[in-house]
Amino acid sequence: MSGDVLVYDTTLRDGAQQEGMNLSVADKLTLLPMLEAYGADIIEGGWPGAIPRDTEFFREIAATQPLTRARLAAFGATRKAGVDVEDDQQVAALLASEAPIITLVAKSDARHVAKALRTTEEENLRMVRDTVAYLVEQGREVMVDLEHFFDGADYDRDYTFAVAVEAVRAGASTVIACDTNGGALPDGILARVGELSALLDEEGLTATIGIHAHNDGEMAVANTLAAVTAGAAHIQGTVNGYGERTGNANILTAIANLHLKMGRKVVTDDQLADLSRVSHAVAEIVNIAPYRRQPYTGVSAFAHKAGLHASAIRVDADLYQHIDPARVGNDMRMIVSDMAGRASIELKARELGLDLSDRPDVLSEVTRRIKEAEALGYTYDATDASVELLIREVAFGERLSYFDIESWTTHLSGSSEGSHGAEAVVKLSTGAGRSVTVGEGVGPVDALDQALRGGLCSVYPELEDCELIDFKVRILDPSAATRATTRVIISMSSPAGIWATVGLGRDIIEASWEALTDGYIYGLFKAGVPVR
Ligand SMILES: CC(=O)SCCNC(=O)CCNC(=O)[C@H](O)C(C)(C)COP(=O)(O)OP(=O)(O)OC[C@H]1O[C@@H](n2cnc3c(N)ncnc32)[C@H](O)[C@@H]1OP(=O)(O)O
Ligand SMILES: CC(=O)C(=O)O
């Protein structure tokens, strides 16, 4: 354990219970170093014996021993009612997993014992006792997830607490109070965890108390922190809060709050500074787009849009941020929009490497043009490349110039049987002369892109590696039907990075053409090609 609260990661088990998440064995193996990187002390790998992929995962780990620091936990249930623990196939599978830690889920709500297990309260206590004692005898560390602990305690406090005591008496190192249905509030968590801690003391029992909180009331992180305040020294959660239904406590947010706000050294400073990278890397592997507004690690977590904020931030960044974003590996960003003031533009320019602090005329002109353009329908929130082209144009008195477009045309051919594709012709001139290029594509924008690339790449080979990776269309005034204004945002990538440009037009082709030409201009600029 790096600090005074142990971090137990259940991304690979409870995280994988999220709707739409489907982790292969290879995915789980790829995620392991990421979970270790942010400072997980224990990684729960899944439920061997229940889920064939998890059985395979534990086999792989036993064979390859990939963990460098964290310990591995296998998750499973207590023995079945009426079955000897030695004969329970799922308990046997937990042992076969070779995981040094086994986390058992035990019913701790009397209603679940009656309705879900359909057994007696006494038999459930025996199931807990037998399974914990047996696994401890076999040399495993055993932790017990007290399922529905908080709801159970509200219904029949004595029974819920009796299950916890039974687990500790049988040898469990840790009992985890679970808010399985995710509806608890911090006050209740604080009280119940405090009572559990006091009860274990009264009984002369020693065990770590843990917390496992679901997010159904959007309280999972708050509840986790409340439990720590009440004496929990083991927190469970998942990267980015993945998990069953609305998810689990986001372990990254919980760690950042504990470390930076509550003075609990849960991970090292270096691990803390890796939180943002891990959040995004894990999102890539599980194939779920990162949540931009995720606290601490989201790309918008330290992004400022309002002009008034920017004007104060220019003097002191801490005036409008709750922590220094670098502590969690994130960055402050300025967003330029019609809410910008001159300070926003100055800070954005600084981000781009331009000092405009003594150019009030430029700041005013860019601000004016941004507001005017946004009123027409342009958007600059997510199109930094268009913002940079505009700032440079105003600051240096002319647009970056690599080519002149003489004309472009495109047409789509079709018949009653459907569309047959599109063709475009682009006539342009560069320093190397005039060219006329034909492009063919699946649609008119694709054809225009092919023709433009064709004309440019022969002169600027730097564009060979540049590709169009995303294309978003928005009709701004749909009530105007076919006369509506269309906005297109195009994203491009090259070895130099990813950038986005915006175009506006009376139709999708005109809007795309503007975004496309700006995209290539920016690509040439990013590649360091000198202007004409
Ligand atoms: C709160 C949580 O998120 S816990 C984690 C939940 N995760 C999962 O359920 C994912 C993996 N689960 C599975 O693959 C399957 O549900 C299995 C293999 C565990 C069980 O499958 P099946 O044998 O077909 O049973 P089924 O899923 O229908 O019902 C669960 C059984 O476990 C019993 N059970 C539930 N909790 C416990 C427990 N803590 N201890 C012992 N038995 C339990 C139920 O009473 C039920 O028994 P029954 O078959 O005699 O009615
Ligand atoms: C164990 C578990 O996942 C829960 O109670 O929510």
UniProtKB/TrEMBL annotation:
Annotated pathway: Amino-acid biosynthesis; L-isoleucine biosynthesis; 2-oxobutanoate from pyruvate: step 1/3
Keywords: Amino-acid biosynthesis, Branched-chain amino acid biosynthesis, Isoleucine biosynthesis, Transferase
Keyword Ubl conjugation appears in the UniProt entry: no
One Pfam family hit: HMGL-like
Residue stretches making up the Pyruvate carboxyltransferase domain: 5-273
Segments crossing the lipid bilayer: none
Enzyme class, first EC level, given as a word: transferase
Gene3D superfamilies: 1.10.238.260, 3.30.160.270, Aldolase class I
CDD domains: DRE_TIM_LeuA3
Gene Ontology terms, MF aspect: (R)-citramalate synthase activity; 2-isopropylmalate synthase activity
Coiled coil: none
EC number(s) per entry: 2.3.3.21
GO biological process: isoleucine biosynthetic process; L-leucine biosynthetic process
Catalytic activity: pyruvate + acetyl-CoA + H2O = (3R)-citramalate + CoA + H(+)
Family: Belongs to the alpha-IPM synthase/homocitrate synthase family.
Protein name as catalogued: Citramalate synthase
UniProt organism field: Flaviflexus salsibiostraticola
